[in-house]
């Protein structure tokens, strides 16, 4: 007799990604607008940059997490260890920084170096935020199927 494979528990698939990205970016827009203003940027320019950055981040978030979960699915070790969560946060934030630094330099009419310094401050905040948000999201909504242990079929 073969056991019927169970379905992954928790919020899964496209619905999971939409909820994840929506919550993540709503908080990110609010916080990044405030952080841009704290660096002396105009509130209007800060708000627009936060929304544009968020739009780019949404596309990157969907792409990066899809790729990460495809990679994760092929791993023999299931679950999300501290190391795997750190790799996830660093990979996501490194990719977004590479896209946003030139954009911020152009938008705020600052040098690339000033944009790097500005992004470094944002990067530190968002690296911690990404790690904490992912951990909280997984605790509330459950791990994605790619990180859940699959039951062994009985023969």
Structural summary, described in words:
The radius of gyration is 18 Å and the shape is elongated. Helix content is 73%, strand content 0%. The mean pLDDT is 83. α2 (43-73) packs antiparallel against α3 (82-107) and α3 (82-107) runs antiparallel to α4 (112-141). It has 155 residues and is mostly helical. It has helices spanning 13-38, 43-73, 82-107, 112-141. The protein contains 4 helices and no strands.
Describe the protein's topology.
Elements: H1 13-38, H2 43-73, H3 82-107, H4 112-141
Summarize the structure.
The protein is 73% helix and 0% strand.
Assembly type: single chain
Largest sheet entry: none
| Distance separating the two termini | 6 Å
Mean pLDDT: 83
Count of distinct strands: 0
Core attributes:
mainly alpha; elongated; 155 residues
